[in-house]
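User: Predict the complex.
Assistant: Input components as received:
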Amino acid sequence: MTEILSARSLTVRYGGNTAVHDVDLGIGAGRMVAVAGANGAGKSTLVNALAGWSRGYPVVSGDVLLDGQNISRLPPHQRSRGGLQHVPEGKNVFSELTVEENLALVRLGEDHAGRFLFSRSEVIDLFPRLHERRHHKGSALSGGERQMLAMARALLAGPRILLLDEPSVGLAPRLIGEVLAVVRSLVDRGLPVLVVDQNVRAVLEFADELYLLERGRIVGHGSAASMKNDDRILKAYLGDLAVKGDLQ
Amino acid sequence: MNVAQQAINGLVIGSGYACVALGWTILLGAARLVNFAHGQMYMLAAFICWFILTRSGIGYPLAAAISIVAMALLGVGMQLMMGRLVMTQNLTSLMIVTLGFGYILQGVAGLLFGGAPHTITTELVQQKIQFGDVWFTSQELLIFVVTLILYGVVWLVLQRTRQGAIIRSVAEDPKLAQLFGIDSRSVYIAIFVLEAVLVALAAVLVAPRTPILTSMGFEEVIITFVIVVLGGIGNVGGALIVGMLLGLFTSFFGALVTPAYTTAAIFAVLLAFLIAKPEGLRTR
Ligand SMILES: Nc1ncnc2c1ncn2[C@@H]1O[C@H](COP(=O)(O)OP(=O)(O)OP(=O)(O)O)[C@@H](O)[C@H]1O
Ligand SMILES: [Mg+2]
């Protein structure tokens, strides 16, 4: 299978602390790949490194390939222009710009090869609330609306691949499923997606495969179906909930 | 006292203040950066213009243009040196670094141009326009008109264009802007160059009205600071209004009390205002 995005021996250090150790991973065409792990396992550090981006000062070594091209030396804005669209954890829209202005910042590059193009109306169809809120500033949006806006701008940029770090954080349980279903619908149109999410149970319903990260190392990888029965996943992520479920 | 004449003088002084402050308004208001070398850049631009005018046969408009280009290059140089401080919007370090730049500029200008006062002579300064018992010079009319136009253009660009939205996005969060495909470093360089160009433009317009000294600059940066703070940080319209009001205040205070203490009086106004209304004229 052709990999749209892959990492080879990716290692990320913050000062003396190694947050990601020698990670190899790949996201194939039309695949939804999840990364799971405990708090502080290095999930955000890993996806940020793929995008060449960080709010801190990490030292990254190893290679990142986009459609077979080594992009390890490219600054984040060039990776974004090249179709590597990253929606980071936390603040991911401009609070002092309106919804409209946030979306208008995005420009599609000249080179459309391999990119998934979404028209304005398609994006509005996916997230109708954004249209209602188009004249509101980012600061006036709810957490879920911000998440939608951040995903909308990533789609308007014509992604080759989408990286989503905690897209469902802070959402009501019912909305988590809705957001992941939207993501799945994009994947079904062919867009590869890498998603980090705390809600492993929900993510496993939608993803094709899952990488398990522990203290910066990949300790497990497999299809969603097989990972559902993986001991470590059961114990760390599904066990509690499974017990609760049984009690009800 | 000729009230109409004092009012005109006030508007002229005020548009000069506002013109000098415009670059800073964008820098601090839109980009959240500071440049305490602003006053010395004003001084240097004036001296470059004066030097070209006295040493060559080149006319005022071209000398002014050369001075503006020189300051633009200086702006690029300063930005390249300040790289990381700018990306992290580290205002304290930027303040210290730019203050240092200001002193260096002052020292270099002192070495090159000496300590004596000079005047930039333009034909426009000598052309008087008289209406009844009030008058002003063509240069003063030019300052007033250009300032109004510049403020209008800057406001339109910031609020109504994609370039303006890019500037505002980088100001808010330069790191996030990168994920939108924006080259934040280049945007910062552009904003800094714009600041340098605007202060140079202000210098070649305003400096011909009074003698220039290599030691000047402090008053310019202080008045700029007052305008930006009172106008409401990031509020272009507020800066224009405050600039004009300060000009009127300077003019009438000078006529009614004494011109010797106007700067001190301006500070008294600033303090009173900040105590009464800490958020400025209007926060955005
Ligand atoms: N900017 C930074 N500077 C220094 N260390 C950092 C920085 N960001 C993260 N770290 C460290 O790197 C490690 C991995 O953090 P990371 O944010 O990648 O974890 P995560 O798996 O995304 O966690 P969470 O589930 O809480 O989002 C942690 O030990 C963290 O303390
Ligand atoms: Mg994280």
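Residues 169 and 177 of chain B are 6 Å apart (CA to CA).
Let me know if you want any component modeled separately.
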